[in-house]
Design a protein that fits this description.
Layout: H1 2-65, E1 69-71, H2 74-80, E2 84-86, E3 88-89, E4 93-103, E5 108-112, E6 117-122, E7 129-130, E8 135-140, H3 142-174, H4 179-205, E9 214-218, E10 223-228, E11 235-236, E12 241-246, E13 251-257, E14 270-275, E15 278-288, E16 298-304, E17 315-322, E18 329-332, E19 337-339, E20 342-348, E21 352-357, E22 359-364, E23 367-372, E24 379-381, H5 385-400
Antiparallel strand pairs: 1-21, 2-24, 3-18, 4-13, 4-17, 5-12, 6-8, 6-11, 7-10, 8-9, 10-12, 13-16, 14-15, 14-17, 15-16, 18-23, 19-20, 20-21, 22-23
Amino acid sequence: MTMTTKHLRLLSISIFVALLVGFGLARLLDGPLHTLSHSHVEGDGHDHGGDHDDDDDHDDHDDHEDEGTVTLTARQIEASGITVVAVGRGGGHETRLTGRVESTIDARAAVAATVGGRVERVEVAPGAPIEAGQVLVVLVSGEAATLRAQADAAAAEAETARLVYQRDLNLVEQGVVARQELETSRARSLAADAAARAAQAHVATAGAPDTEGRIAVVSPMAGTVGVVRVSPGGSIASGGVVAEVSDPTRTELVFTAPPALASRVTAGTLMNVSGPSGSFEAVVLGITADVHERSGAALVRARPVSATLPPAGSPVAGTIVTDRQDDGLTVPADAVQTVDGQAVVFVAIDEGFRATPVLTGRRAGGQIEILSGLSGSERIAGTNAFLLKAELAKGEAEHVH
């Protein structure tokens, strides 16, 4: 019985040890399997990652194909204010000029007394607006009174001579007066008429004085009274300036130009002008060479086509194009942008715009000459093309990130 109990105890211990060994082996076997299984999942993940890399490579290839393209819808283009224009034709040499707005030669008047006399009244003050024919001052002149008297006397003599001629004409028809006397009276009548007209012209030149020699000196133009040089009770000599009148609306553009430009510019040439009120188009009125003896510079006079000029004295800048060419390609200056150091224009495509490298030439009249890169049939972004440049740079930055 004792042996049996001992035997059972040993058997139980053996079974327990076997179970422990079995459990340990199972743990040992389970570890590598779990590791292998986990490695396989990670391997699958790497495989998928490889597939994702292939997709990225494909996307990079598509991005490479779309490089330089800005995708925009028609509505986005309109909302951004980007204009689409055709490639132009032309070219030439552009010269930049500086100048000022100046009064025209007929915009100023120094009104003078045609005869000497005494100032009776002054009707205007400096700075006052005035109309053409409006009275500036009233003079009383003895000389003017004499002229008026002479004109009246000449008119009377002319009338007397005319009556004598008419009487002789009637007497000749009756046979009382010889025809020779008729011819003499006719000649005297004609001479008297001529003298009367001359006297009346003198009176008109003097300002049409009345019988007392009172003359109204009037403004020859509408404008603004400048300096008034007389005062009531004062005297003025013949030819003395009574007042100065100017019309601030009568202005023109005056530019100083290189001497060589005088031979290449003619009246009627168009030019672009920029001033305090903005840019506008002007037409050349005339050009004078060697206006400044020392520098030999030429003087270019121009007037705006439709714009209103700023006040006299305002500085302006102008550009004038000479040696125009009709066979070259040109685009607006705003259309040319610099991308990575290369001049480009944005050509319109179905998806938006594509940056197209170009070789530029001379700049003339707000246009830039295109020497290569365009065929001339393209439509390109004009105004606000810089927005496309910014959008292109933004897209490249996001791609690099």
